[in-house]
Amino acid sequence: MLDDRKLTILRAIVTDYVSMREPVGSRALVERYQLDVSPATVRNDMAVLEEEGYIMQPHTSAGRIPTDKGYRLFVDRLGTVKPLSGAERRAIETFMAGAVDIDDVVRRTVRLLAQITRQVAIVQYPILSSATIRHLEVVTLNPERGLLILVNSSGKVDQHPVDLGGAPEETVADLRGRLNAALVGLAPSQVVERAERLVEEFPDDARPLGAAVVAAILEMVTADPSTRVVVGGVPNLTRFSDQYETTVRPVLEALEEQVVLLRLLGEVAGTGDVTVRIGHENPYAPLRSTSVVASGYGTDDDIWANLGVVGPTRMDYPSTMAAVRAVARYVGRFLAEG
Amino acid sequence: MLDDRKLTILRAIVTDYVSMREPVGSRALVERYQLDVSPATVRNDMAVLEEEGYIMQPHTSAGRIPTDKGYRLFVDRLGTVKPLSGAERRAIETFMAGAVDIDDVVRRTVRLLAQITRQVAIVQYPILSSATIRHLEVVTLNPERGLLILVNSSGKVDQHPVDLGGAPEETVADLRGRLNAALVGLAPSQVVERAERLVEEFPDDARPLGAAVVAAILEMVTADPSTRVVVGGVPNLTRFSDQYETTVRPVLEALEEQVVLLRLLGEVAGTGDVTVRIGHENPYAPLRSTSVVASGYGTDDDIWANLGVVGPTRMDYPSTMAAVRAVARYVGRFLAEG
DNA sequence: GTTGGCACTCTCGGTAGTGGAGTGCCAGTC
DNA sequence: GACTGGCACTCCACTACCGAGAGTGCCAAC
Fold this sequence. Notes:
Distance between the termini of chain A: 52 Å
Oligomer: homodimer
């Protein structure tokens, strides 16, 4: 159905449209891509491509632009992998070099990704499923209010307020000791099991407080994955000032909603490789004229979280995909080592 | 120089332009504001106002629009305080009601402010100058790396990585004890004094590690004020799609830079009352066609941090100022109560 | 000081008209 | 059967032009 030349033409239309931002016609095509056939032939092929739904005309007597389906075919079969430039490689190295803690890593990653792809970058905080609890602390702020702090082996620190109900300091100290003794070294899944039995082991007078604290711990351990997403490169949206209604506004609105972002990244990625959602393929309706390029990141056997970029369907997929892949891999290695 | 009627006219021009978004002419003015004089008289007054630099014409034979100077006069002398609507009052109450910790308070505040003012809101994390250190913890992640955690009396948790250099667990435990004994209960300023002597009290073998940890503590305590700013309501920028180059882009870029935001809030506010920077008065050049309405928040004797909104110079100052003031006060009270 | 009148300026919307880009189709060629 | 040159056709983008409307500044009169 689609012979080689038609595919070549589709590829040419996509690349040309992406770089020129204008509908591309048969004449320009043969000139810029040395197709060795006449414009008329190209036109015949284009008619077929249009019939099949890969390209369309904004109006009669305009050139063609790719449809979502066209981009999809391009991404699946036609895109040649574009290696990163030296400058980009160096940028990745230097950007991450001085990172001190997890927050810093995430912050730097988002900046890096936004800078390389020149698009809006989204990075999810790593979910360290293999991380174990390293330390538990209950800090008394005042007789009524306390703070539960949880540190895991990757250096992530979570906090949660606890209602102490006026419990004496000894009770709190005892509780602290028991919690640490019981839970340190456990992975999240193990915590869930262990914690349930733990409450029963508390002395009677510490029972209510203990139950509250354990509940808080469970909440932190289980709710954690859905916590946080960081966004960067929003000013890059100004490059699409022509697509205000279809791109800029919806993206800004989506960025405000952590839940939406997680859905976007989560449903798109979830694997170790780069995934692309083009336009209407997107699970979130307002972004139907937007594409998401995402990837999981982490070690081979333990995917930790997702990251990606969002931009107009008319984007440079090969470069963007290469950048997302490279950053995901690098961050994965970086986290694994440190 | 400027008699009552001229001031009335200026006020009318500002309010009309803000609500209508169109240059306002003499005829419309007398009709909408019952000025009891003829358009010609108004024109004479407007000519004077223009000469004095309070208003200008986009082009001959258009109506007048206020200049920055005009807005300034309006804000200083002409703006009638616009009380919050019942709905807004209720919004403030309900928004903050279920806040659990500081992060949550800040997040809710930013949403609230963005929603009421329908502009981009910025909230700085509270600097609790009166807060004291409540607990210090050094958690060993692996023989080389540790994590210093600092909890203050307001429930704020800070963390900082520490290079343990393979120090044995007893040394770390000893250090932890000494740190807590020495520093708990101190305010930041006191920590600075005390910490310097503290290092000398360490046993020799803990000296290098101790010095590193103390350095980290000092860094956290002193660097803290400049830490974090949270932004919300960015989609509200889409309401100014006409001012892409002068408003939308610069604001997006500024929002990406925490430093800029802090400068903006800091230099603008710094007092307990609402401060307004109009257009060119702004310390940050790219926002010269933007206004910032900000306020410190906290208790009367202890200003904690700043919050505010940024929007086009053509904004509803009375409402915005009222909203910022109300939110600042409410959050201050909320934090003071615990 | 205020006002009505008036000529003037400038924007905005609508209407033609034109050039150009691109197409589809068809008949002819290899 | 695939490709090509030619040609008529369509539609957009741009320009020019015109008229209506809004608003002004100025002036003479009250």
